């Protein structure tokens, strides 16, 4: 199964494709990771259009079975939160329009799934992403590693939902 994680951002949007299984051993293979970057001098409309086009190409190329987008849960700065929410909306709407199942997880949910500790640091999460995918080093930039963490979270959460279906339905 292939899951594409998206760490939304208007200037730099991370993506990471993980191959894994919903059964058996917790083995993950990072197939692709990187960022989509837009020019901060361009209009917001132009930048969102660029994200849409590049994400569409990415989904066409990778054909994921599911897409996971980081849920904007809390931002101290509305100036930062709004563009992130806009980029997130583009990713969610695009995947849904292409018939790809979409899940969203907060940063805390990713931390808990990947490290076992909901207050883990970004560095700890990124280190565990590298370890779980048997990578020699943490993928760069950080947005790409975060996107891989989102995809890994999908596998961890869905495995638990399958193992404990009554909990998933509550």
In CATH, what is the homologous superfamily? Answer: Ribonuclease H-like superfamily/Ribonuclease H
Highest-level CATH class:
Alpha Beta
Structural class: alpha/beta
State the low-pLDDT regions, or none: none
Radius of gyration: 15 Å
Number of helices: 6
Tell me the number of strands. 5
Mean pLDDT reading: 93
Note the main sheet. 5 strands, mixed
**Order of strands side by side in the largest beta sheet?**
3-2-1-4-5
Total number of domains: 1
- The separation of the N and C termini measures 26 Å
What is the helix fraction of residues, given as a range?
A: 40-55%
Task: Tell me which CATH architecture applies here.
Answer: 2-Layer Sandwich
What's the CATH topology name? Nucleotidyltransferase, domain 5
Percentage beta strand: 15-25%
Could you say which overall geometry the principal axes of the C-alpha atoms support?
globular
Give the helices and strands as they follow along the chain: EEEHEHEHHHH
Describe this structure as you would to a colleague.
- The protein is of the alpha/beta class and 170 residues long.
- The chain contains 6 helices and 5 strands.
- It has helices at residues 44-62, 78-97, 107-115, 122-132, 142-163, 165-168, and strands at residues 2-7, 12-19, 29-37, 66-70, 102-105.
- Helix 1 (44-62) packs across helix 2, helix 3 (107-115) packs across helix 4 (122-132) and helix 3 (107-115) crosses helix 5 (142-163).
- The protein has a 5-stranded mixed sheet.
- The longest helix has 22 residues, at 142-163.
């Amino acid at each position: 199964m292939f899951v594409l994680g998206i760490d939304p951002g208007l200037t730099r949007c991370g993506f990471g494709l993980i191959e894994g299984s919903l059964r058996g051993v917790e083995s993950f293979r990072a197939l692709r990771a990187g960022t989509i970057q837009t020019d901060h001098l361009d209009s917001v409309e132009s930048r969102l259009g660029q994200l849409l086009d590049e994400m569409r190409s990415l989904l066409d190329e990778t054909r994921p079975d599911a897409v996971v987008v980081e849920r904007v849960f809390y931002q101290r700065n509305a100036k930062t939160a709004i563009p992130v929410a806009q980029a997130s909306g583009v990713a969610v709407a695009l995947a849904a329009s292409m018939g790809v199942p979409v899940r969203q997880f907060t940063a805390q949910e990713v931390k808990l799934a990947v490290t076992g500790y909901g207050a883990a640091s970004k560095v700890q999460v990124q280190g565990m992403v590298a370890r779980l995918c048997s990578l020699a080093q943490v993928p760069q930039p950080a947005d790409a590693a975060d996107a891989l963490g989102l995809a890994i979270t999908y596998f961890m959460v869905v495995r638990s939902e399958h193992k404990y279906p009554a909990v998933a339905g509550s």
